[in-house]
Amino acid sequence: MKPVIGIIVCGLMDDRQFVTNAYIQSIKYAKGVPLLLPLVRSDEALQTYCSLCDGFLFCGGNDITPLLFGKEPAKGLGTTNITLDIFQLRLLRAILKTKNPLLAICRGMQVLNVACGGTLLQDIDTSLHAPINHMQLSASRSEISHKVLVAKGSILSSITGSSLYTNSFHHQAVDSLGKGLVPTARTSDGIIEAIELSAHPFALGVQWHPECMYRTSPVMRDLFASFITACRK
Fold first, then answer.
1. 171 vs 155: CA distance, rounded Å
2. Which of 32, 103, 141, 203 is deepest in the core (most CB within 10 A)?
3. How far apart are CA 76 and CA 182, in angstroms?
């Protein structure tokens, strides 16, 4: 049977909860069964989510409320929704206890870091001296933006090799790492582009958007395929 992949709601708009279609299609084409998991205020529902799914995908989205990682809001902070933040953090912590595979993309990677006790740079341009541009303005979201160097011996390196070119749509980044997390990829300005939870079979966060490159990049297809393979075990 194909593994069931819980895709956690990306965000809220008016009276709607949404997941961008590219995430759903990437899971489908990688031979997983996508199951959308909406925001709920229920411990029982969170446990049901954990038992229903073989793996979990956390998607991109808006900024995380800084108070949730012990910081006051700083210049450059974007739109936040503390209700969504708390839901995703609680669910992610519950998922980590199951040891089921987890792929966390962009904001999802930042949620993973905060869930493990880490902090974020609230805005790269106001936090670092002379960073490269991490918010590309390209004709298509599938276009590459910068080079990412990958650490040897990581899960990510077994998929991508020592480096790859990615797109980039983020103005926040990992600052201090959460407990048990290791940085496994960086850009030339030192920004952490991937993290892994060392004591977990497959808990990988990437800062770029592989779902947007799925149709054009064999490497991004390999990333999703490796995630789905881990979910079958």
1. 25
2. 103
3. 26
Can 209 be counted among the known catalytic residues? yes
- Is 134 catalytic? The answer is no
Contact between residue 24 and residue 68 where contact means Cβ atoms under 8 Å apart: no
Consecutive H or E run containing 222? helix 218-232
Structural domain including 28 reads 4-232
Exactly one of 53, 171, 209, 231 is catalytic; name it.
209
Q: 193-206 b/e with 16+ CB inside 10 Å = b?
A: bbbbbeebebbbbb
Contact 203, 230 (CB under 8 A): no
Determine which one of 10, 171, 211, 212 is catalytic. 211
The single residue of 106, 116, 212, 231 carrying the catalytic annotation is 106
Q: What is the pTM of this model?
A: 0.97
**16-18 vs 11-13, strand pairing mode:** antiparallel
> What are the distances in angstroms from CA 3 to CA 39, 95, 119, 184?
22, 16, 32, 26
pLDDT at 61 over 90: yes
How confident is the model over 97-156, as pLDDT tens digits?
Answer: 999 999 999 999 999 999 999 999 999 999 988 899 999 999 999 999 999 999 999 999
106 is catalytic: yes
Closest to 208 in 3D by CA, of 140, 150, 134? 134
* Count of structural domains, the chain: 1
